[in-house]
């Protein structure tokens, strides 16, 4: 399935190109990272231990059991299943590594598709917490300039903020309260996407819809259009009834 190049990782591709097997050291997998929008490319190495820790953090970020309309439950079980198999019979080291490489690749591809699917952008965890963990896994150690080449296209509605030990992704400001969605704030992480595609804090949009059953953004844009022209702007208001 072709997934639109949108969201915090629009245009990004991650491919496991090879595995380096050593008799005494952990197997290292080489990940080739590229952004087709900025044409930036780099390569990193991760071990099975790194992937196991990453899988645990993603499962915690998805918080199985939370209520949303996105595909979070499916993604949670998909990541849970992405564990290297334990073989009942001895196999060659290289065959085991090949199987693990395919498992790791499948999990990363599923995660990128999950974050870029429009339906999943209605969930605060899918748009903030999960991308933060993916960025931590792929781009740990990069400065803000380097990270910007890979993790945010110019047309993305997402923006990045970087602190010394934490990468956060946040969706654009709520147009009602003018505050940004903070993934660590339970209120800010709860988002509602209206049929027109505009996103708001749950608390903000509930109060606005209690006053009038129209999208506040569409209503504002319609009023602005009326001020600038005499044309009928009734199509700019989305009726939620």
TrEMBL record:
Residues 174-219 form the RING-type domain. Keywords: Metal-binding, Zinc, Zinc-finger. The keyword Zinc-finger applies. It comes from the Eukaryota. Residues 230-241 have a biased composition (Acidic residues). Residues 221-241 are annotated as: Disordered. GO terms for molecular function: zinc ion binding. This is RING-type domain-containing protein. It comes from Aphanomyces astaci (Crayfish plague agent). The lineage of its organism: Eukaryota, Sar, Stramenopiles, Oomycota, Saprolegniomycetes.
């Amino acid at each position: 399935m072709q997934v639109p190049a949108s969201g915090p990782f629009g245009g990004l591709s991650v491919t496991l190109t090879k595995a380096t097997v050593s008799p005494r050291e952990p197997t290292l997998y080489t990940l080739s990272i590229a952004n087709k929008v900025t044409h930036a490319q780099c390569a990193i190495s991760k071990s099975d231990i790194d992937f196991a820790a990453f899988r645990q953090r993603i499962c915690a970020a998805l918080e199985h059991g939370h209520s949303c309309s996105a595909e979070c439950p499916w993604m949670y079980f998909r990541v849970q299943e992405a564990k290297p198999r334990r073989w009942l019979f001895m196999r060659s080291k290289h065959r085991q590594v090949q199987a693990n490489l395919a498992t790791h690749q499948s999990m990363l591809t599923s995660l990128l598709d999950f974050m870029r699917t429009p339906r999943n952008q209605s969930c605060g965890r899918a748009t903030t917490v999960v991308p933060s963990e993916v960025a931590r896994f792929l781009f740990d150690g990069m400065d803000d300039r380097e990270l910007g080449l890979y993790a945010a296209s110019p047309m993305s509605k997402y923006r990045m903020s970087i602190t010394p030990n934490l990468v956060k992704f946040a969706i654009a400001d709520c147009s009602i309260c003018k505050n940004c969605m903070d993934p660590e704030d339970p209120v800010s992480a709860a988002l509602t996407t209206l049929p027109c595609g505009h996103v708001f804090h749950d608390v903000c949009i509930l109060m606005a819809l209690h006053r009038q059953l129209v999208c506040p953004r569409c209503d504002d844009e319609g009023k602005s259009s009326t001020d600038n022209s005499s044309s009928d702007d009734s199509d700019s208001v989305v009726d939620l009834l």
